[in-house]
Write the structure tokens for this entry.
Amino acid sequence: MRPSMKKLLQLFLCALFACHAHAAPPYSGGQARALLTHLSAHVLIINSDLTLIKKKPASEFDLLTYYPLSKTKLDEYKRNGHIANTNDDIADFVTYKIKDYELTNEKNERLQVKEGSKASSLQDFALWTYDNVLCSQRGFHVKLDKPFERVKGHITLMFEMPGSITREIRIPINLAITDKDPRPEI
């Protein structure tokens, strides 16, 4: 490729990415606030899948929340038996930050959240039915520096969406490795 063509291609790609970065999100501020309110009101603390099965001391648990699927996504699920992830769902724009936390195990040892638990995007978990409504679950794994049989304390979490739309929530934690999955049966 000639140097002039290479430079032209670089300018084109820069302009393309700059336009995409400033594109308006595919939802309104009201929709974003409603979603963050819903997510904040439906937070669950749950043992990881491995802990739910083995019931042995663990050093991680899951923080989950959920929201009802949109009519478009629900229709797609009914039609295909699955939903293609196109990263354009309103929840794909939600990020989180752990603002503070205080966690102890059954030995009264202070537990520290590992660096790997501070990812900013909520992960997409399996679809689940809550109150007879098919929902998308979002959340993240909280990885700790020491094992626990019971973890107590709190996590203060900040949900955020583009446009500086935020919602802060303080989540009480009281989880034992023998606890059952709090989600309703499918």
Notes: The mean pLDDT is 87. The CA atoms of residues 95 and 121 lie 5 Å apart. The chain has one domain: 28-176.
